Amino acid sequence: MLLARTILPWTCEWLLHYELWLITGRWAGSGEDHTVSPADEDAESER
After folding, report:
1. Highest-confidence range of 2-6, 35-39, 43-47, by mean pLDDT?
2. Structural Rg of the chain based on CA atoms
3. Which residue intervals define the domain Type II CBASS E2 protein in the entry (predicted)?
4. CB-based contact 27:33 (threshold 8 Å)
5. Is 27 exposed, middle or buried (0-12, 13-18, 19+ CB in 10 A)?
């Protein structure tokens, strides 16, 4: 299998979901729920 038909499309899709998660705090892809908890937001704001 060529990388262009396997790894690259998967990586592009994952990066899209990751960028959306950073903006919204809600994981739109499949798998585990990666919502940002209030404690995580507080820890991030202290940095």
Report:
1. 2-6
2. 14
3. 1-34
4. yes
5. middle
Give the Cα separation of 27 and 34 in Å (integer): 5
Compute CA 15 distance to the chain's CA centroid, rounded to the nearest angstrom. 7
Do residues 4 and 19 make contact, with C-beta atoms less than 8 angstroms apart? no
Domains: count for the chain = 1
pTM of the model: 0.57
| Average pLDDT estimate for 13-42 | 80
In which domain, by residue range, is 20 found?
A: 3-46
**17 near 28, Cβ under 8 Å?**
yes
**37, 25 Cβ separation under 8 angstroms:** no
